[in-house]
UniProtKB/TrEMBL annotation:
ARM repeat copies, ranges: 35-77, 77-119, 166-195
Position of the signal peptide: none
InterPro entries: ARM-like (IPR011989), ARM-type_fold (IPR016024), ARM_PUB (IPR058678), Armadillo (IPR000225)
Gene3D superfamilies the record matches: Leucine-rich Repeat Variant
UniProt superkingdom: Eukaryota
Pfam families, sorted: ARM_PUB
Protein known as: U-box domain-containing protein
PROSITE patterns for the chain: ARM_REPEAT
Keyword list, A-Z: Repeat
Species of origin: Rehmannia glutinosa (Chinese foxglove)
Keyword Isomerase assigned: no
Ranges of residues in domain U-box: 140-285
Length: 330
């Protein structure tokens, strides 16, 4: 098959590439070991749709479930070819190329090479619809772009590229404009937390965006469990960076009710981060308050926090949290 892919006529090459998807895992691995990857990568440089489509499908099949093949495909020069395909005026090929880049970026050994290839800037341009084709970028394509960037964000060298390309602001705007309970926002929020937790520059840039705190508070209240976990993690980083500056801004958005709820029924990580953030937000100067209502809320909050601090999550604690939430929302 490798000889057919390398020396065969166009139709024979396409047929051979399509046959790879019908093979079992052992047969695919045997083909990869016999040198089938290199001619498939060469096919990516062809100028016709069918050859590129067949080669991309074949490479995806070889990469799926095999770290060795992911590395082999990257070493064979697939990344530059994939980036060129992403710039073609063809939506179907673009989506296949994005899927290929995503699966290759999931391999730790490939991340630095992909991050250094110019892929980050190109992905962000696609996400921002800077190309004519991007007017019709599908939801799945956007999801694959965010997922690939998330994979690459674990490489320190990728963070400056994301920031220089304006990726942080693009990401924040996408989250702000999207349904907070969606899978897309869940993945985007994970990327945002990865970026701001890796770079003080990124964290400061995020803090300066006026929509960030309202967006994160909304995500804590309305997001999926994973989204809530990432959102509260980012809020905690923001508050820790300068409590005096951001405490009031977070409270002004009505964050306490959602945080109390999260401290009881969120994931384990979300509960711990919510409790840590509540500790930073709570007003310890209850006696000096001139407002009886505020004083009453603070006393109730302190009692709830004492139970939460002791790790109590029984019916009494949950009831107190619910009563406290109702008070905070009045």
């Amino acid at each position: 098959m490798a000889e057919t892919l390398l020396f065969g006529e166009r139709e024979a090459q396409i047929l051979a590439a399509r046959q790879i998807g019908k093979l079992n895992s052992k047969q695919k691995q045997r083909l990869a070991e016999n040198g089938v990857i290199f001619p498939l990568v060469l096919m990516l440089h062809n100028q016709d749709y069918e050859s590129i489509e067949a080669a991309l499908f074949a490479l995806l099949n070889l990469a799926f479930g095999s770290e060795r093949n992911k590395v082999g495909i990257t070493k064979a020069g697939a990344i530059p070819a994939i980036l060129k395909i992403l710039q073609w005026q063809n939506e179907s090929l673009m989506e296949l190329a994005l899927a290929a880049l995503l699966i290759l970026s999931s391999c730790s050994a490939n991340k630095l090479e992909i991050a250094s290839s110019g892929a980050i800037q190109l992905l962000l341009e696609l996400l921002e619809s800077r190309f004519p084709i991007c007017e019709s970028v599908s939801h799945q394509a956007k999801f694959d772009i965010i997922s690939t960037l998330h994979n690459l964000s674990t490489v320190p060298q990728s963070i400056p590229s994301i920031l220089i390309s304006g990726g942080l602001i693009t990401l924040i705007q996408l989250i702000y404009d999207s349904e907070k309970s969606s899978e897309f926002v869940e993945k985007a929020m994970a990327l945002l937390e990865s970026i701001v937790s890796s770079s003080d520059v990124a964290l400061n840039q995020a803090c300066e965006a006026s929509i960030v705190i309202p967006m994160l508070v909304e995500a804590v209240e309305e997001g999926s469990a994973a989204c809530q976990e990432h959102a509260v993690g980012i809020l905690l980083l923001i508050c820790k960076s300068c409590r005096e500056r951001y405490r009031g801004m977070i409270l002004k958005e009505g964050a306490m009710a959602g945080l109390l709820q999260l401290s009881v029924d969120g994931t384990w990580i979300a509960r711990e981060k919510a409790k840590a953030l509540i500790l930073l937000l709570r007003d310890r100067n209850n006696g000096g308050s001139s407002s009886r209502v505020k004083h009453s809320k603070n006393v109730a909050l302190e009692e709830v926090m004492r139970q939460i601090d002791r790790g109590e999550r029984g019916g009494t604690c949950i009831q107190m949290v619910e009563e406290m939430i109702a008070k905070l929302r009045t």
